[in-house]
Amino acid sequence: MPQIDVHNLTKTFKVPEREGGVGAAMKSLFRRKQKEVHAVSDVSFSVAQGEIVGFLGPNGAGKTTTLKMLSGLLHPTSGSATVMDQVPWKRDATYLRRISMLMGQRSQLQWDLPATDSFYVHSAIYDIPKDQYQQTLDELVALLDIGGILKKQVRTMSLGERMKCEICVSLLHRPSVLFLDEPTIGVDITMQSRIRQFIGEYNRKHGATIILTSHYMADVVALCKRIIVIDHGRILFDGQLDALSEKLAPFKVIKIDLDRDVGAYDFAALGDVLVRESRKVELRVPRANAPGVAEQLLSQLPVQDLTIEDPPIEHVIEKAFGTKLEKAVDA
Amino acid sequence: MRRLARAVSALLRVEIATMLQYRGEIVLWSTWGLVNPLVLYAIFKAGAMSNDNHQMAGLTVPQIAAYYFTMMIVGHVTAAWDTHEMSWYIRTGRMSAMLLRPILPMWKSMAGNLAYKICTLAFVGPMWILVAFLIRPEFNATPKQFMLGLLAVVLAGLMNYFLTYVVALVAFWTTKLDAVGEIYFGLAMFVGGRLAPLDALPGPIRVVADVLPFKYMAAFPVEMLMGRITVEAEAFRGLMVQAAWLVASLILFRCLWAVALKRYTAVSG
Asked: In chain A, where do the E strands start and end?
């Protein structure tokens, strides 16, 4: 039985639409045009308990709208979903106590007070027993390394500090299902890495089910084996990250360092030449040909070092957002 | 119930702490609550003094003082301002953060409302004493009338809070609510008796005021506390009308809240 089960979920918004300028503004006073925006169309997927799924797509793809429906913020236009056997948009208090949604910089923190005050209110609202609250707080404070900023007024915190406190407050009630919408947005690389590690540890320790959206591929690669690619409200791909890579980028990159310049050697006959310097070469070759090409290079050239790599996931995902994925999936 | 009490007491504690961060601002808001009735008192006193019988709308100068002095206190303790905040919560996405919690966002607003009144008491309390000393209000209420008047103030506070909140829910449809809020406050001032005692208004407007809830949130509790409502049946009728409006606003809240959540679009968050 999946922990998150979504069937044909659809959300359509009606948004006002008009041309720019005063004339159009006057006209809209009498006749207001509305346009239907299909934010999410017929989306179906399921997530098992303890799974971390990456939800990927460009801006406006429908990722956040889907998460908002699953967290009970939005009612769908049609379709159904259950999370832990409950219908999210019924907003039962028992359901809301078992989930958490972290929305980038949308704060659960009291802006004018130290973070500890927000933690205290959170513990009361979620009715966390005092000893459990203290134990969880100590654990989160240590893992997120926020001991030194707990007494700092939230509005004076740096973005990274605030994000860590935001994560802390979201997890105080030990949610079984986590919806993370851009959890590393706006923070530096070191902090991104720490937050990633922390999410992974939380998942392992508490068996939490996590759906994560992120524009940082490093988040996805580090945390998610499975990804769902969504664009224009429709699911384009649902499967293992490796499978997407194989489907969309059926080639490998061979990088070689040479002892000396090999002059007019015809690398183009072996594959696409990505880099050609006097002693450094990068070739893109079909996956199936990679071992043969590597063997040929090693036998014919004074190779100092050779590596065979998958193409960067950024390129794969970028490709996924284009039309090629549909073809790839259809194929 | 225990869960709710724990949550609301924590919210109240934190709202008080937040309020205390903005001491200057709450003093200024409280000052407006003092100045407004004092200006109106000065106008009505001048009007009364210009009349041969030194009365205005059937009130002597000390009774005018009592009316506006009591209105000052009732206005403060029954104040509600969700129409000003709701659209901001929705536009900035803060409503989404509140809706993720397993508690109605209304409880946070109610805690904020109580926190304001608790925090400002230290400032407005001495001011009320000073104002009473300066304008010498005259009260004729018996202890029983006074006690019923206090009950009327409590009901007026709850009525105003819930009705304001219900009006604030319009923000789920319109996103910007300032104009609706102004109409609500305008009506509360005019036909609620905050601007002038209702006896000073033309007959047809008094009929309208009787039908609308605003009178029961201001003029009615004020006149009860002053001892101007001497017929017991009239007092009980007023209290019953207050209770009826309160129940109606609660029912309206429940219905509108359910519909509002269905059409919530979670903009900006």
From this structure: 4-17, 33-47, 52-56, 78-83, 99-103, 177-181, 209-213, 226-231, 234-240, 251-258, 272-276, 280-286, 303-309
Residues A121 and A255 in one domain: no
Range of the domain at A303: 250-309
| A chain contacts of residue B94, beta-carbon cutoff 8 Å | 106-107
Beta carbon pairs, A and B, within 8 Å: 79
| Count of the separate structural domains present in chain A | 2
- Walking along chain B (269 residues) 10 residues at a time, the average pLDDT comes out as 90 91 82 89 90 85 93 93 86 88 94 92 90 90 92 96 93 80 88 90 89 94 90 90 96 94 77
What is the pLDDT at residue A6? 94
Examine the domain organization and report whether A158 and A232 are in the same domain: yes
A51 and A171 co-located in one domain: yes
Residue A37 covered by a domain: yes
Q: Which two tokens stand for residue B211?
A: 């039908």
- Give the closest of A75, A103, A117 to B262, CB-based: A75
In a domain, A323, yes or no: no
Report pLDDT digits (tens) over A210-254.
999 887 777 888 888 899 988 888 998 888 887 777 777 778 888
pLDDT at position A319? 66
Look at residues A91, A61, A52 and name the one whose alpha carbon lies nearest to residue A74.
Answer: A91
pLDDT at position A324 is 46
For residues A267 and A221, membership in a common domain is answered with: no
Q: Which two tokens stand for residue A181?
A: 């919408």
Task: Say whether A73 and B262 touch across the interface (CB within 8 A).
Answer: no
Considering chain B, what percentage of its residues have pLDDT values greater than 70?
99
User: Is the domain of A39 the same as that of A130?
Assistant: yes
Give the pLDDT confidence of A55-113 residue by residue, as tens digits: 888 778 888 899 999 999 999 999 999 999 999 999 999 999 999 998 865 677 888 88
Distances in whole angstroms, Cα of residue B38 to Cα of each of A122, A238, B41, B69, B163: 42, 69, 5, 8, 26
Model confidence over B229-241: pLDDT tens digits? 878 888 999 999 9
* pLDDT band at residue A321 under the 50/70/90 scheme: low
Two structure tokens written together for B214:
């605003």
What pLDDT does residue A328 have? Answer: 41
In the DSSP assignment, the letter for residue A257 is E
In this structure, the answer to whether residues A210 and A292 fall within a common structural domain is no
Residue A244 to residue A327: CA distance in whole angstroms: 13
**Contacts of A288 by beta carbon, 8 Å cutoff, 6+ apart:** none
CATH number of the domain bearing residue A302: 3.30.70.980
H and E: helices and strands count for chain B: 12, 2
Average pLDDT of the residues in A175-204: 86
CA of B177, closest CA in chain A: separation in Å?
A: 18
Within this chain, do residues A208 and A268 fall inside the same structural domain, yes or no?
no
CATH number at residue A117: 3.40.50.300
- Point out the residue among B22, B93, B101 whose CB comes nearest to the CB of A96: B101
Note whether B97 contacts A107, CB cutoff 8 Å: yes
